[in-house]
Amino acid sequence: LSESSADEAPANLEGIAIHPMVSEEGIQVAQCLYDEFGYSYINDLVYYPRKFAAAVQSGRFACYTAVAADGEVAAVLSLTTDPHLPGTGEVSMGVVRKRYRKASLMTRLTEAVMDHARELGMTSVFCRPVGYHPYTQRIAVAQGMMPCCVELNHVAADLSNSYGDEGRRHHTFCGTLMLRDVRRTVHCPEGEEDVVRTVIRNCGLDRDVVPSTDPAPGTSTVADTDMNRILKAACIYIDVVGEDVGEVLRREHRRVKSSL
Question: Could you tell me the pTM of the whole model?
Fold first, then answer.
């Protein structure tokens, strides 16, 4: 990939179409991400067009593109799924090329992605806009997403972007929208009820919150850790809570510290 000089020229904003990405657009999608972030984007799969196209084909990503009349990809947005979060999708990988900005392309792409999430029967969607980009935050609010948390210093300091402000880690916000209200009981550790109820209320939900119970003797914890070396961060997923959950968390924490 190389710097795109075309981004400096005025764009023709007429006749831009929104559609699911086709494999032939993979290189241009990678170019969009590169023009904005260099090689510092948190999901490096997008820099390998064939692998990314295969991931789209498999359903891991639902990628939508805004394409100009001459075939140039002007903007891109994806719906990402995670096997640890069934029924939930993340609106991510959103980029509009500089010369196509202020044409509401991200709003149109977001509407297409949200429609796709509803067609899939997803329970919820969420997004994590970076703190320095208020336009993305406004789109999340316009879609009805409710703020539920702030991830402090989440984005690595060497993330490149066209908005400047490099050299320090960035905060991200998290907004969630429930597409289907599936009733569940929330089991909460003692002393955390107020925080949990606040998050539930901010998501516009009504849930029963009950005290959590100790795991049954002899049960084993099932955990998986996803390490992101670009972010220099990790996420530990606990799929099944067993009697040894504390030991498993300590072990995974040590492994993450030694690996990152």
Answer: 0.81
